[in-house]
Specification:
Number of helices: 22
Strand content: under 5%
Structural class: mainly alpha
Helix content: over 70%
Shape: globular
Radius of gyration: 22 Å
Length: about 425
Amino acid sequence: MSNEVIALMIISACVLLFVTDWVNTCVAAAMGCAAFTLTGICSFSQAFSGFSNRLVILIFCMLIVGDAMMETGVDWLIGRYAVKVSKDDERTFIFAVAIVSGLMSMWMANTAVVACFLPIIAGVSRASPHMTMKNMTMGATFGAMYGGSCTLVGSTSQLVAQGVLYELTDVQFSMFDFMPVGVIMLAVFIIWEQLVGYRLGIKIWGDRQREGIVCTEALMDVDVVSTGCRSKKRSVFALIFAAMVLSFLLDWIPAQMTALCAALLCFITGCSEPKEAVRRIDWNCVIFLACCMGLAAGLAATNLGTMMGNAVTALLGDDPSPLLFFTLVVTAVMFASNFLANATTTVIFTPIVVTTCQAYGFNILPFCMGIVYAANLACATPFAHAQVAMTMVAGYRFTDYVKANLPVQMIMLAVMIVFVPLFFPLQ
């Protein structure tokens, strides 16, 4: 049996485990790396080289910085400011929180940002007779989803795509490659929500304003709020964070070193306590990213990627339109991401798209960016992302997500198809 057939069996088994969730996704990815080693397709050091990869160090350090933001209460203060400027108006509140959560999620885990704002939204809906949780939750927290698509460290999908590219090609993203189109999509979403989405939502759930809301008292985590209020390290953290962003912008040192220095300063200054930070960090994200790089290394050790690319080129013909191929890719990824984790769809599609682009001479970068955007912004089902599922505490039904979010999802597809090639030519 050839290495390509064995590799295909391993990857197919991993995808099946990702989709069915029979085992934890990290375990499934690690099993794939182990299988590549045991079958002799690649060495142990190749299969598990992701754990020493600079991208894994980068995301690990950024998770520490995000934890410090929560530990010092900076995230809570930002959220309360958004409440203050809303002046008891739902639409203004959605506008303020969407912008603030979008900016925060460029540097923090999207789920952490949503977790920060859910108690605030719950408290506001309880305190105000004019504001209800169901009307505000989707529109306000989805800003985190769009903001997370603006930087290299904003979401796992970017780092997974970067890891696969690192193994298969010499093409790499910079920290702010995703920013131009990401900001446009965030702006389009906010405009949509203000002009159409807010009213559409009210029309969809009608008199079900307070139906099915999960115990808003449980969302009001008083201990977390009061701890943040008592913290004396906010000014120190603000300086560390500002220096980190400035270093990212000016590219003084490599991004992973900037993140590492920021994380170490958070520990040294007491903005975050190492033992507690390690306990709270989302290790699934770190381990899954490292193991995905191992799977990419296993593919790179065979000709399977080339074979899959050849199969796609056989279907597309000798001279396909790059824009048509880009449209097909982002549409397929966004559809799949409504039912699969965004990192999973990124792992599945990126190797195939990379080899196809190499065969046709297309520019790999915009195609991979399209995969990332499409994977991150699927929101027509509550299965799409963890942060989408978290909004179910507001009592939404499955059909509410389809009716409220499918139109804006189609708009975002159009925005991708227009603006990604505009900033990054496809050929």
